[in-house]
Design a protein that fits this description.
Blueprint: E1 5-7, E2 24-28, E3 34-39, H1 46-50, E4 56-62, H2 69-76, E5 81-87, H3 96-108, E6 116-121, H4 123-135, E7 141-146, H5 149-155, E8 160-165, E9 168-175, E10 180-184, H6 193-209, H7 212-221, H8 231-250, H9 271-280, H10 287-304, H11 310-322, H12 334-341, E11 353-357, E12 363-367, H13 371-380
Parallel strand pairs: 3-10, 4-5, 4-6, 6-7, 7-10
Antiparallel strand pairs: 1-5, 2-3, 8-9, 11-12
Helix pairs in contact: 3-4, 4-5, 5-6, 5-8, 6-7, 6-8, 6-10, 9-10, 9-12, 10-11, 10-13
Length: 385
């Protein structure tokens, strides 16, 4: 198989599982209820989440990932037939070819509708693994064990799955809610600092669109929030997850919110330019870094549209910058980025749409902004013409 590397499994099945003390359980009570657990040493919970009726479990993980994978396999193998599938790293795993390799592996191993997928990895792994689970036999259960801060607070929660195409990021996908998400903070202890910093992009975003306490914590503690043992980091994780859970429960399929609120679309704050930047850089810019850049851009855009003042724009620079995230970008001409933004999932025909603020934690949608505003906003973050 070209993109997936299978590893051996062991026989056995059953339920049960351990439970860590001090875990925080955030309930997602939508059409398909599940729990997001934040704590430490959570792998023993997996058999309980998967249940007694599961026989086979496919564990999808980056091929180079070893240390975080071991406790997951140790927890599963006494209870289930385990098929471990190693994937390409990062966004390169999110292709139709890799998904097809996974489908072939599931078919060869006899996976049925009562079996399940477990993802262990970052956001690209949860996106691809969730898509495989959503499309195999029209949907089998999936449990996410995110190993990065970004995946914990964003990709693993909410049921969005997807793969990339040559035209852009996440243009093919489906909604498929997980059976559970285990945010094991132990996995952050060995996460490279650059990945922790990138993960804060989605965390800080939540502060602007919904929970300003996030901004207060980041501004008060600065880079200290990047200490995996810090209680402040745990609070930020829990607050960011809570923001996403609240939004997703109200608008799972991004059909719109109430009383002028953008609904789930609010989670895409900063993402329209961010996805264009990622594509321009061949995904060598981390997603959270691109979100920080995109958020400052959209703040500049909102100011030009008369939605927010300069003070709130500057707070974007201050909050993202406090944790070491970039707030400027000059890596591509604006016309190249604009062409990508026009095929963004939020666009409607030729009409560009941006989630903007009308005040702190007051999100709205700006449709069809003047191109001069877009160019001025890009210049304001350092971009070339």
């Amino acid at each position: 198989m070209s993109g997936v590397s299978p590893a051996g499994g062991s026989e056995g099945r059953g339920g049960g599982g351990g439970e860590s003390r001090g875990d925080t359980v955030l309930e997602v009570r939508g059409a398909s209820p599940y729990d997001v657990v934040v704590g430490r040493g959570l792998a023993p919970r997996l058999p309980e989440v998967l249940g007694d009726h599961t026989q086979r479990v496919a564990v999808l993980h980056p091929a180079e990932l070893t240390e975080p994978l071991a406790p997951v396999l140790d927890a599963l193998r006494p209870h289930f037939d385990v098929l471990a599938l190693g994937l390409p790293d990062g966004e390169h795993t999110k292709t139709a070819a890799v998904a097809a390799d996974c489908w072939e592996a599931l078919g060869e191993s006899g996976f049925t509708r009562s079996d399940a997928v477990v993802t262990v990895g970052g956001g690209a792994t949860t996106d691809l693994g969730g898509f495989v689970a959503a499309t195999w036999l029209r949907g089998v259960r999936v449990v996410h064990v995110p190993t990065t801060l970004l995946a914990m607070v964003d990709a693993a929660v909410g049921g969005k799955t997807g793969v990339n195409t040559g035209a852009g990021k996440n243009l093919v996908g489906s909604f498929h809610e997980p059976a559970g998400v285990l945010c094991d903070l132990d996995l952050l202890d060995t996460l490279p600092r650059a990945e922790l910093v990138a993960g804060m992009g989605e965390v800080v975003k939540c502060g602007f669109v919904a929970d300003p306490v996030v901004l207060d914590l980041v501004e008060a503690h600065g880079e200290a929030v990047l200490d995996p043992a810090s209680p402040v980091l745990r609070e930020l994780v829990e607050r960011a997850v809570a923001v996403k859970v609240d939004v997703v429960v109200g608008d799972l399929r991004e059909t719109g919110g109430r009383d002028g609120h953008p609904g789930r679309e609010v989670l895409n704050y900063g993402h329209t330019l961010a996805h264009a930047v990622e594509r321009a850089e061949d995904y060598q810019v981390r997603h959270g870094e691109a979100v920080a850049i995109g958020s400052v851009f959209v703040a500049e855009l909102a100011r030009r549209a008369g939605r927010i003042d300069e003070a709130l724009v500057e707070r974007h620079r201050r909050a993202f910058g406090a944790v070491g995230l970039p707030t400027t970008y000059a890596g591509a001409p604006f016309d190249e980025l604009l062409a990508t933004m026009r095929v963004d999932k939020k666009a409607r025909g030729s009409l560009l749409r941006f989630v903007v603020l009308e005040g702190l934690a007051r999100p709205a949608v700006l449709e069809g902004p003047e191109e001069s505003w877009l160019r001025e906003a890009y210049a304001a973050i350092g971009g070339p013409a």
